[in-house]
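WARN retry 2 of 3 for item q-0093 after timeout on previous attempt; input resubmitted unchanged.
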Amino acid sequence: MKFFAKVFEEIRMMYTVHLRIAGVLFFIPVLFTLIFGGLFYKNSLTGVPIIVCNLDDGFRSQGLMSLSRRIIPKTF
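OK item q-0093 returned
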């Protein structure tokens, strides 16, 4: 219990006394993530081509293959 009291005291001190340090530790990384993430938003990956090779002729593997054909359209 004493440990958590010390942790909460440190957090309170960070947001009252050391506000600049709190900004550096928490808010600036979020800001940079949004800025640099926005740069690559238009060039984001929308689809990953995959090939499934079914060598097993079992009942469950055939069901999985038919499910994947309904979910993932054939593009080539």
